């Protein structure tokens, strides 16, 4: 009986409490009660039909929230994410020259579209600062040294960022990335913690640069003239020996393949950046047993020059050069020079190694489009995958989904405006438009929703870079905001190129990829200031070693290698070894 009475009493008290807290239906504010002042509801929270249990009913209209609560960023000069007073920032953009109908990067349809949109949405004026694409790694150092760097910078040269960061020349982005996270939803949605915190120092947490993302994480492919294989009845090479035999067949059948231009035959085209332009070949000589620890310690050179057995790949190139299979002028023309591409467009080249989609870039002026116009529909370069390692695997070494580095110099006096700009350019609607443009002008939409790029050659809508990556600085590659749509559209995103070429290239580039692990050990002091000097020594060594006689190859390579190690390479290896063991042990 006592238990029953206790239960009844509790029920009665609960009913009375609820009745006391429930305002009458006709009371002011009953349908939309004011939230407790100490815990304001978010702006996007739907109103409830009843007041919270601890909120007393009121006979007056709900009190308006204080302006600071309505707009917590008023002190930053922001209302609804837009500055109340116009801000001005300078933004770096790569200049690729005006060849192939390219436009001025600081004054074209897309650069002006961005300026108008950022001024409209953020009340920020953009001033473009051009930096040559080829040689930008040196130019960014010059700008930092002169204190004349744009507010928003883009580079591939992270060691330079580290060096100047240690000297106080780079702004710490962490207070903005993490402290005002809610102001940058597009940036966080696109890059996530992995890319935003990729360079976060493990000791004090500073972030000197964020990493752009690669939408289609493919690196390098080997290409061969498909019509030349057919003309000589040669199957696609699947081994190094078969590839070399194919090159010899191209040379021996120059008159058959080129007729009166037989003397212009180039079985294999190579560029002065040998480490990049022979990467798939070099990777095949690296033991498959290389550990993640070794990849970190020796992977500071992005051409994998320090990986074990690399020399033997260079030896193959040296043999091909002395056999007359490699373009003899490869070391003369630097990055950005059109001579090598023009040889391919003219039909003189049988094979080369390059970026995974290189023959299909630039629409109607792509290498493949030129070949088809000049030599018929059967002409074109197709991707193959012939170089296998000691385990029979066509290995590719690929960094995680990171690309260019976006950073702010210490001279930037508008860091918040700069961050909001980077967020704006990361918004899916904005980056999608920059990548594909207007329907009916630069792309068409298929029934399944996939996007096919159409040529903009000869119009103001031509893009200076693939998918306008010079403007979409936080992403490299096609991203339409839908994974399924991305996959279907990727093969259609090269104007005038048959989708089978792109499909085959994408599969080959992805085949047996090994992603570099990321070990965040902070700055490696031994790397400070060494990126460009070591790069120059590496490139000079590789060019000299390929050009050497067979008899002199070992002495040329070894002397250059010893100089590279003595000039800072060994110090970096030692420092990376120590840093790895400090944070991750000796295993």
Strand order of the largest sheet: 5-12-6
CATH fold annotation of the largest domain: D-Maltodextrin-Binding Protein, domain 2
Measured between the Cα atoms of the first and last residue, the distance is 71 Å
- What top-tier CATH class of the largest domain fits best? Alpha Beta
Please tally the helical runs, counting DSSP H or I stretches of 4 or more residues.
22
β-strand number? 16
What number of domains?
Answer: 2
Largest sheet: 3 strands, antiparallel
The CATH architecture of the largest domain can be given as 3-Layer(aba) Sandwich
CATH homologous superfamily placement of the largest domain: Periplasmic binding protein-like II
Name the poorly predicted regions: 1-68
Backbone shape? globular
Could you explain how this protein is built, in words?
Helices cover 40% and strands 10% of the residues. By secondary structure, it is α/β, with parallel strands linked by helices. It folds into 2 domains: 78-216 and 404-481, 3-Layer(aba) Sandwich (D-Maltodextrin-Binding Protein, domain 2); 220-399 and 495-521, Periplasmic binding protein-like II (D-Maltodextrin-Binding Protein, domain 2, 3-Layer(aba) Sandwich). Strand 13 (443-445) and strand 14 (451-453) form a beta hairpin. The longest helix has 32 residues, at 553-584.
